[in-house]
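Sequence only, no structure available. Ideas?
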Amino acid sequence: MNATLENSGDAAALPLTRLQARAVRDIVAFARRENLQTGDHLVESSLAQRIGTSRSPINVALRHLAAQGVLSHDLHRGYFLNRDAATLGELAGQIAAQPDDPLYLRIAEDRLARRLADEVSELDLMRLYDVSRSALRKVLQRIQQEGWIEKSAGYGWAFQPMIDSAEAYGESYVFRLAIEPVGLGSRRFRADPDELAALRREQETIVAGGYATMTAFELFEANCHFHETLAAWSGNRFILQGVRGTNRLRRLIEYRNASQGRGPRRAQVIEHLEILDAIAANDKKRAAALMRAHLAGALREKVLSDNLLA
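Reply:
I predicted one. Tokens follow.
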């Protein structure tokens, strides 16, 4: 392979924006969840769709990883892994240890602690956090994408309901219990064979030891990918929208607690595999029952047992 990367030294030296750094993190997490091997192709457009961002930060992130020697770049064919993703644990740990945007974290903490009112103006936030309007808007737009703030008239913003308590977390599970099993039992439910195989590989990698080596972020994202993929197979756009929206709200508090060493357990992933077995056997009734038991168990463990987000 003719591996070349023009200005690779510059790519490694240039500081990444927060969005680009998150793209690096997401690409590494994707490669590890999929257990990609040396020589596997990383396609920019596919990564952008899978990660849920534009191609621009993905391109910069790929160049950055190539400059670090993780990837090779062929000018005509794109980017390829230089080493097995299983060997990227140290890099994933370093990425996970990097602090998030300080302004984002301050707004999140203040909102969770109810120090911010339901409606705020940009001017008030600029004064409170001593930041420019442009810096503030970048963070507010990220928060808007995550679903816990909305733009109001003028320069105002209105905070939306959050998963910020055991009660709210419990409500999110009750909501998921109402829609996810129904999606699996839907007449329109159709599993994509290639996606099913990929999802099984991902979950088997976690069960085989990934649960002990993957970061809390990687485990949470793998969990979201599992549930959102099954919701997409339901053929019901509102079920998919509901699962995605709940996961966006979960991310805030899950990431907040990730630094405390909390994450999903291996047993939950074994339950995921049992659900996939039922789907592969075209037993929608069993798949729905297993999903119902899976979510009810998580509700008992995380909320009713006062073990929130454990």
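The radius of gyration is 20 Å.
Hope that gets you unstuck.
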